[in-house]
Amino acid sequence: MNVPDDLVELGRIGEPYGLKGWVNVVASSDEPDVLLKSKQWWISRLANTEGTAASRVSKPKPEDLVFEPFRVLQSKPHADRVVAHLEGVEQRELAAQFKGRRVYVSRARFPAPAEGEYYWVDLVACQVVNLEGKTLGTVAQVVDHGAHPILVVKGSSEQEILIPFVAAYVLNVDIQARQIKVDWQEDY
């Protein structure tokens, strides 16, 4: 099976859950809807299973990973995590072998967001333009600081600009055009 080129990391597998082979997933976001609704996960593992201790501690490069598809038979929220039963994983000992692996879902399989809502992954690489038409840079990442998300924008000088992702400052998001219009100045 061909690995989709639009995989998005959504969580990390922890200890097994129960005795029947369920896995315990620490979701990458507070709202794991995509994990819960997706019926196919891609789970990564290192291509070289004899990796050194240093390579197991640091985050591996995408080219060092092998992605395996797994059909999700059942998933549900449990405390602050998601637990899931994967096809072919019927025993606790098998589920334990997945500990530390990352869970990915194809972006094409994400449910459509509601009007005015966006997946953070879709905002990354969007060009940010202010009211005067000046390009401030591109979104490098979106981070959550509790009260609201913040756009981390990298300008041409590699200077970071932090813009709260709230209606007072973000006036328009055009995912198709890959552009975000903001009421923000370069020197804020």
From TrEMBL:
Cellular component annotations (GO), alphabetically ordered: cytoplasm; ribosome
SUPFAM superfamilies the UniProt entry points to: PRC-barrel domain, Translation proteins
Subunit and partners: Binds ribosomal protein uS19.
Keywords from the UniProt entry: Chaperone, Cytoplasm, Ribosome biogenesis, rRNA processing
Identification of the protein by name: Ribosome maturation factor RimM
Matches recorded under Pfam families: PRC_RimM (PF24986), RimM (PF01782)
Function statement: An accessory protein needed during the final step in the assembly of 30S ribosomal subunit, possibly for assembly of the head region. Essential for efficient processing of 16S rRNA. May be needed both before and after RbfA during the maturation of 16S rRNA. It has affinity for free ribosomal 30S subunits but not for 70S ribosomes.
InterPro entries: PRC_barrel-like_sf, PRC_RimM, RimM, RimM_N, RimM_N_sf, Transl_B-barrel_sf
Ribosome maturation factor RimM PRC barrel domain boundaries: 120-187
Claim: NADP is one of the keywords in the record: no
One MF term in the entry's GO annotations: ribosome binding
Originating gene: rimM
Protein's cellular compartments: Cytoplasm
GO biological process, one term: rRNA processing
Family per similarity comment: Belongs to the RimM family.
Domain RimM N-terminal intervals: 10-108
HAMAP family to which the protein is assigned, alphabetical: Ribosome_mat_RimM
Chief subcellular location: cytoplasm
Domains as described in the record: The PRC barrel domain binds ribosomal protein uS19.
